[in-house]
Design a protein that fits this description.
Two copies of one chain form a homodimer. With 230 residues, chain A is α+β, with helices and mostly antiparallel strands. The first copy, chain A, has nine helices and four strands, in the order E-H-E-E-E-H-H-H-H-H-H-H-H. The first copy, chain A, folds into two domains: 77 residues, Glutaredoxin (3-Layer(aba) Sandwich), CATH 3.40.30.10; 136 residues, Glutathione S-transferase Yfyf (Class Pi), Chain A, domain 2 (Up-down Bundle). Chain A is 54% helix and 9% strand. Chains A, B: This is Glutathione S-transferase family protein.
């Protein structure tokens, strides 16, 4: 029986965009586990699996339900130890938390100032109202104000990727010689921007651009199956 | 036979300060390997082990000589696999490279603007001349200009540690339930500042402060054996 993967969508069900959901899609594919997407819009998240979580991703594997992208990766690693590892050992599992913390505090923060209005604009009207209210309350300002420095945020985004750029001098993936969940953590952030926004964030001669393209090719082009916003 | 550890010093041989050398000291202690420090000042680095490297740390283990802190950790892990692991598996070894890249590009860059003149001031005159010339050539400005924004750099330093701060919400060490080389990478940067500079970089209610104190306690208080500059 396939794993049920509750994934976030806007008005177009063919363009899932949540960074945390993309991490899970890649993790499931990495483990070679078949899954069925259940499309969920913002205002229906609390109906998922009896309201287990205020946010998606959520997965159901038989009778087991797990929320939170990192906990889902932990669950998959523990439950399917004979399939390709997502962490490459306990040290990698711990350090993936650092990379998640870096991605959240550095990339996501910067991307919020770039894509927040773009997200709003791809939602159905009911979700737009929810999204605007909840995000404006969280950030303490209007969506339009959040993205006021958008052009500067786009111009400055590349420098935030310096730790990844330097890592790629030593090895082809964050996971070393092959990709691990840590790669999908950072991929999720950039895929979010790729699917939801026309902002050009990476130059083509950037090793991070090449790494991202290789991520898009993984698992039969799973990430590339949703075209970039043009 | 003890491992010979070529470590950088200034005028006071009891106050080794190099961040990369501190990583190696902690790694050797982590593996439980006895070592003898060979004190080296800046202008004598090219005399170490026949000029194998332009920088220390360098270690000699019997007939084997290894330079570069990360390559030394790799060597110790490979050569002493039955002693406590420095990486916790291949994934951790790869991701420690990311943490090194983050530390170098974020922490070291910021610390350079804080401690560069402090380093100069603890060196012997001959080393001072070398240090000033080489660093000013590398940075394209005078030492005094490099630290012109020192107070602002000190005030802004704490925010750069956010990825570590968030990680410590999930686990006590970057390595997870116990410290790994990744912890020593970041420890090295903060120990550098602690030994060489009176700048106060961390507030006592910061989880990173607590983590750093726990690092200082490790391996019979190896890091604490050099008092903070007061």
């Amino acid at each position: 029986m396939s794993i049920i993967f509750h994934d976030l969508i806007g008005a177009d069900p063919a363009r899932p965009f949540s960074p945390h959901c993309w991490k899970v899609a890649m993790a499931l594919a990495h483990k070679g586990l078949p899954f069925e997407r259940n499309n969920v819009c913002f205002t229906k998240v609390l109906e998922v699996e009896g309201g287990i979580s205020k946010i998606v991703p959520v997965v159901r594997d038989g009778t087991k339900v797990v929320a939170d992208s990192f906990l889902i990766a932990d669950y998959l690693e523990q439950t399917y130890p004979d399939r390709p590892s997502l962490f490459g050992g306990e040290g990698g599992q711990a350090m993936a938390r650092f990379i998640e913390s870096w991605s959240n505090s550095t990339l996501h923060t910067a991307l919020a100032g770039i894509v927040m209005k773009d997200i709003h604009d791809v939602l159905e009207p009911e979700d737009q109202a929810y999204f605007r209210q909840s995000r404006e309350a969280r950030m303490g300002k209007k969506l339009e104000q959040i993205v006021e420095g958008r052009e500067a945020a786009i111009a400055g985004f590349s420098t935030k990727l310096m730790p990844l750029r330097l890592t790629l001098k030593a090895q082809p993936w964050i996971g070393g010689s092959s990709p691990l969940f840590a790669d999908y953590i950072v991929f999720g952030a950039l895929q979010w921007a790729r699917v939801i926004s026309s902002a050009k964030l990476l130059e083509e001669d950037d090793p991070v651009f090449d790494w991202f393209e290789r991520c898009l090719d993984l698992h039969d082009g799973l990430g590339r199956s949703v075209p970039a916003l043009s």
